[in-house]
Amino acid sequence: MKYYDKLIFELSKPGRTGYSLPAPESSSVSSIDANLLRASAPQLPEVSEIDVVRHYTNLSQMNFGVDTGFYPLGSCTMKYNPKINEEIASLPSFLGLHPLQPDDTVSGAKAVYEGLDSALAAITGMRHFTFLPCAGAHGELTGLMIIRSYHMSRGDTRRTKIIVPDSAHGTNPASAAVCGLEIVEVKSNADGLVDVNDLKPLLDDTIAGIMMTNPNTLGLFERDIKEIARLVHEAGGLLYYDGANMNPLVGTVRPGDMGFDVMHLNLHKTFSTPHGGGGPGSGPVGVCEKLVPFLGVRVSGFHGNFSVILRAYTYILMLGRQNVKMVGPLATLNANYIKESLKDKYKLPIPSVCKHEFVYDGLIDDGAREGVPGATTLDVAKRLLDFGFHAPTIYFPLLFHQALMIEPTETESKETIDEFIEVMRRIADEAAENPDILHQAPHNAPITRPDETTAARNPILRYQA
Ligand SMILES: *Cc1c(COP(=O)(O)O)cnc(C)c1O
């Protein structure tokens, strides 16, 4: 019997129990206003403890996680989440904290915020951080609000436009729009970098600033960043750094030194706290000295996601000053090693040295011939699952039709990476010889090719008998 074939409701048998609660004291029920009490008992599943354990354990094993295998998801930095982080975050003295506790009883938690603030300031070259934002995109919005407040405070009310490169992560224009800014696109040149000549004519006194990520979404270092910073500052704008791609720079280059004024970090990417499935994240926003007075913007309740902040701080302290410096170089080495090892099988549109990630544009030989369609990037991604690897990011960035974006991070061993390379080569050979093997993949997964559009547009979120 496969426990995941059924919903927990379908395993239910009337009268079966797995857990019993103490009988309520009659006074606690009668103190609830009668019109708030339900008329009939809720329809909860009635199952034994072992049914519950098997059901959820089996479900958890259908999922792919960084604890079960290599997860080279470009743009997402799926690095290992060390278990010591969980241990520290589970200490009763942290777990039991309440945000309304008197100040003089939370000096430990305050020390965590202050310690992480100064560690991140040292790593990024910013002056101070706010820890309120709960995701990268939330950080972007917060940072842009800070930029707007800065211009407003100077009576500079015309600055309502923000420049965003065409290679930007989709959250950048989205956050700017939510912040009420008008988006102006700057083009990339043939090398995949922001085109300074395209930028120059865009700069005038209506520009609030520019949002960039460096290395950019193609994994390429924006070599002209100093020149870009000079031009934007000269025009009275500010530079926003999308720090979700900070991983290859950690310990090597600082956004503050490149000329950025405001930035966010994704603690749930670069600083090893778990992410995926929309779980709790943290997108602290750092600012340079002159923007510190604007850091007080309130964008969430209390103090952000404290347990995520705690995990990130643990990670940084465990690495220590010396080892933190190896994060960026090792992530970069791993990405370049894969890039070079597969470029005879996969199209490499931009061949230069990459940082932490890079993009292939599909297979060199996809096996297409008379009456047989070739294997696509989706087929390669599906086939990887048969070999126990999570797919890279696919069809993003949009600049390429068959994009396959690979980010190995620094936490993988050479053996794991070599195995991945071998499997990617094998899949390329299969495609060339018999692309149908790929068209039908995955062959070993419980679910093979769901209709992803319907699943996203019409999700069934409620049990219907
Ligand atoms: C992941 C990512 C974001 C968004 O972060 P969330 O925490 O998912 O909101 C923004 N920019 C880039 C470049 C990213 O990779």
Q: What is the CATH fold-level name of the largest domain?
A: Aspartate Aminotransferase, domain 2
Q: Indicate the low-confidence ranges by residue numbers.
A: none
Write down the secondary-structure element order.
HHHHHEHEHEHEHEHEEHEHEEHHH
> So, CATH architecture of the largest domain?
3-Layer(aba) Sandwich
Task: Report the C-alpha radius of gyration, rounded.
Answer: 25 Å
Helix and strand layout, with pairings?
Blueprint: H1 26-30, H2 49-62, H3 83-89, H4 92-95, H5 107-124, E1 128-130, H6 136-153, E2 161-165, H7 171-178, E3 182-186, H8 196-199, E4 207-212, H9 225-234, E5 238-243, H10 255-258, E6 262-265, E7 285-287, H11 306-342, E8 358-361, H12 377-386, E9 393-394, E10 403-406, H13 414-433, H14 436-439, H15 452-457
Parallel strand pairs: 2-3, 2-4, 4-5, 5-6
Antiparallel strand pairs: 1-7, 6-7, 8-10, 9-10
Helix pairs in contact: 3-11, 5-11, 6-7, 11-13
The chain binds pyridoxal-5'-phosphate.
